[in-house]
Write a structure and sequence with these properties.
The structure is a homodimer of 242-residue chains. By secondary structure, chain A is α/β, with parallel strands linked by helices. Chain A has two domains: 127 residues, Cobalt-precorrin-4 Transmethylase, domain 1 (3-Layer(aba) Sandwich); 101 residues, Methyltransferase, Cobalt-precorrin-4 Transmethylase, Domain 2. Chain A has seven helices and ten strands. In chain A, the strands form two sheets. Chain A has a five-stranded parallel β-sheet with strand order 3-2-4-1-5, sandwiched between helices. In chain A, helix 3 crosses helix 4. The termini of chain A are far apart. Chains A and B meet through helix 1, helix 4, strand 5, helix 5 and strand 6 of A and helix 1, helix 4, strand 5, helix 5 and strand 6 of B.
Chain lengths: 242, 242
């Protein structure tokens, strides 16, 4: 008689914003205890986010001998293609969990904020309802940006809005008016429109631009107008504080 | 001839949401390299936040032999009293920095989010303009809450609002309508009004309550209506996700 193997656990592990030292002790322990490191590769939008997350993880934790499982998770609005990609990824993960192997799915920053981990969980659960799923939170890129600029995101009672990419400038005007702090993530596509908006609101001196926060080539720019016409990279954040 | 002592560095160190394992490697290194651990004691509002931060730090890092510098930073609207308290705290810190000692000011979660660290920095800089100031970002309580509940804070393109304590219910209604996710921090004082609002918006099944996220006595409640009449503690978060 053979005993049935206990399912491994699936972990969503935030590796933090970029500096491997900004990984948590728990992230390091969980990664080192996992046989499989799953790396989402979202073809298209995030140029090197996947390889960046793996590079951070391998500097902060010992990954030698582990299987690196690359999962293709395209950024597309085609629902059928999305579903198929997620099913394929989930079944690759479930195959490892069934063998009793723990799988750590790594993401830049925090797994519950703009990561593809949460999309995958229901697919994995459908295949293996009994496999434990755990999330290890991580330091977000906007906390790292605020730390680098030494700009408080919020003080007592302050309301904060977090807005990812693709801005509707009129909507943004209202959100800036309605909050004490507005964090704009992946601001690269809209810098000139944003600078115009801030100037029209008299807030051009209330904004800080941070690119690649906590990375060795981090950049902090307090004179936001100097970025007019510039093409900042994907990993750029603007903090507007009134 | 005696050489002048180089000023120590002032660090704002986030120790994370509660679980000592959610401290970053950098927080541990910086704390262990600091001669002085400054602990803000904000009499009044946050019952045991200060001692909680110190307890986390002492579990995640070796603090033996270090000076524990307790700073009284009252939560008051009396501007003169606030200024005096901050000046007193800043001068206690500056006294250590002048002797070449590094000082780590610890906060729960992240130092740039609802912490008193940012208030102190200008006072210390006035006394010692040349002392380096650095911020070590930490995992926030809302990332930990989302991780425990396995509720994504935001998926691709989602807009997130973070709102601390003391709610104006009509304002909150508008913010819930205007965002994909709303995070309510320190929700303890307003649970019944909040439950009423969520029910009136048909969103009572879209909210998760998390108390003491990542602590050993953490509590996750998905049936928010069951909390009617309850008095949750200070460290409680509600995530509303549409």
């Amino acid at each position: 008689m053979t005993e049935s193997v206990k399912n491994g656990a699936l972990y969503g592990v935030g590796v933090g914003p970029g500096d491997p030292e900004l990984m948590t002790l728990k992230a390091v322990r969980v990664l080192e205890g996992s046989a499989v490191i799953a790396v989402p590769k979202s073809a298209g939008a995030a140029p090197d986010a996947a390889s960046r997350a793996l590079s951070i993880a391998s500097k902060g934790a010992e990954l030698k001998g582990k299987e690196i499982l690359r999962l293709l998770l395209p950024m597309t609005k085609d629902a059928a293609r999305l579903k198929e990609a997620r099913q394929t990824a989930a079944s690759a993960i479930a195959g490892r969990l069934e063998k009793g192997l723990d799988v750590s799915f790594i993401t830049l920053g925090d797994p519950m904020l703009y990561s593809t981990f949460s999309y995958l969980v229901p697919f994995v659960r459908k295949l293996l309802p009994d496999a434990p799923v755990r999330v290890i939170p991580g330091v977000t890129s906007f906390s790292a940006a605020a730390a680098s600029a030494i700009i408080p995101l919020a003080e007592s009672g302050g309301k904060v809005a977090i807005i990812p990419a693709a801005y509707d400038i009129e909507d943004l005007r209202e959100r800036i008016a309605a909050n004490d702090t507005v964090v704009l993530m992946k601001v690269n596509r809209a810098m000139d429109a944003l600078i115009g908006l801030l100037c029209s609101m008299g807030l051009e001196k209330n904004a800080v631009f941070v690119s690649r926060a906590s990375w060795p080539d981090e950049e902090v720019v307090t004179d936001i107008k100097s970025l007019k016409g510039a093409s900042p990279d994907y990993f750029s954040t603007v903090i507007i504080k009134k």
